[in-house]
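seq as requested:
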Amino acid sequence: MRNPARRIYDHHKNRKGSKTKKLTKLFILIVFLFIIGNLLVRLPSLFKNLNKPFDKIQSKLIQEGSINDEYRTNIILFSMSNKDNLQDLALASFSPSKNAVSIIRIPISVQAYSTGINEFVSLGAAYFAKPYVDSGFDSAYIISKETLAIPIDGYFVFREDRLEFDEKTVRKIKEKLYSPGFFFRFLSYKNYLDKHMNTNYSISKLWPLSWNFKEISAEKLKVSDLKEAAAGKQFKQSDTDNFLRGVILDNSIVNEASLVEVVGEATVSNLISRVVNNLGGSTINFGDDVHNYPETKVILGSDNSKIAKRVARFIGVEVEKGVVPSGADVQVVIGDDFGKIFFGR
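struct tokens:
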């Protein structure tokens, strides 16, 4: 028979153990509730930080970033030093299906001709000298558009010493996107980019764009260098155009087989003709120094709207529906206001 004293001892011991377990559970519950409460309090600020748009470069010349489903998406990439010097420049061109991307490095020391200032200038020097609207960014952006003669759909400006858009760096960034470590450190990445990146893409557009870049297979990521099209220390327009057509010709616009009439000041008309040809269209009535046109317009006279939208994007105007007397699909009118629209002056 069990000792009565032993039974009393065991009873008190069990009660004490049960009480300790209850206190432990209560403590864990309090800690858990504290964590949840703290998280609920902080969630609004966390979401606000995550959804906070990245700062843009303030400019009236730059449109909002866009992603295209019908034709290529062209994005200009700037690398700036901590001393605000242009270090490197590249173009990222996504295919319409978003399953391939071409990165084209643009040497900033090679001189390119700019219609607005009527002289050759390197992109690095243009950023420093600010020939357009007293803005280094605008100056490099405008001359990049002239050099490439293709529409630009958005930009990213990265501020980090010695950052270059070489193949090794580009592939390393691609590998890190949406990796397990990326999600664990996402908030710290966002805080870093808030301080070191400017873009005209909204958060809602940035997510699908970066996801598309991540999903592109290694063999569909091509990195090339535009210096191959440079004749010595200067870009030669015909060589530049041939190089770009060989790398990023927009087949969706080529298939449209559009005829574009370009009228207006002859020098600017040459630039617009290059854009049309680089997109895959053909031009007629190239230039017109006899008549003066007050307004710059892109007039769509048929159902071939793709090239009209792209040329309008390049210039910075909207497409207008109308009649083109020559019978061309699109008419581009270079007006007296072109300098203000395109060059900011």
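The mean pLDDT is 86.
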